[in-house]
Amino acid sequence: MWFLSFWIFPLMSAFTWLGMLIAMLVTWEVEGHPHYASFNANQRIAYISDIGAQGLKPLFIAGCVVTTIFLDLSFASERWLRHTGRLARNTTKSEKVLSGFAMVFAVAGTCGLILLSIFDTLHHPHLHDGFLLLFIAGYVISAIFICAEYQRLGMHFRQHRVLRISFWIKLVFIIIEVILAIAFAVCTFDKKPNVGAVLEWTIAIIFTFWVLSFFIDLLPAVRTRHHGGGEGVPQVEMGRGTNGPRTLKHDGADDRPYENGITNGGFKNTAPNGRIEHAGVGYSSPVDTRIATPARNF
Fold first, then answer.
1. 215: how many CB neighbours lie within 10 A of its CB?
2. How confident is the model over 282-297, as pLDDT tens digits?
3. Are 237 and 270 in contact (CB under 8 A)?
């Protein structure tokens, strides 16, 4: 059932964030571009935080909290689905370490976003700026670790186009957001608030597309929801035979015969007479020790 799958988390996060931004911008427009108390002397365009420090502060806080909750659920779901094999598994310890760092910095970005909405720019300008930096840096660094993880996953699972697509989307996000963040900081220190406000709105809108990239990551889990333990997700078999590591091909064939005791998904060849055990049930196979799980994922 599609409506109960994990892909709904990034959609809820992205739509909440984008809806909040649209509501705040439309409100400022309808009110006739008011000059808020938090404005600088020559400022004409409102920052997101300027509008969020006024009557829409409850909306600002609620929107930031809901956005981060569903985004963190997306992170946790992606980690759990890879651990259980419903998405392409992490094959090395370095991939798991990169994933862990990505989650840590994502939590830091979460804290920054929630706290900057609470400590508004009107009453707590210095705290607000500090939490804004934590928000941007946290999620950008998290995206860097995710890209590094996906680059390594893509080397093991070349048949999964999803990994390559998601990698490039996140890499483009990193490049654009870093450039815009530097320009935003320069405008802030050079006292160019109107250009800085436009850049802040642009950074926030692009953040929406980064959140949506997790929809691409989680969507393949729909195909494996009834295949526990990673069945249907081709894995890389790292045997210790004479010819080194073996990679299962997309059509289910292996490069060479299996060794006794090597497990591939639900298949395990342990019997010397060529019997194959699958899910605890033995049966005879006419093909001696060359059975592999068909690839059903993309």
1. 18
2. 444 444 444 444 444 4
3. no
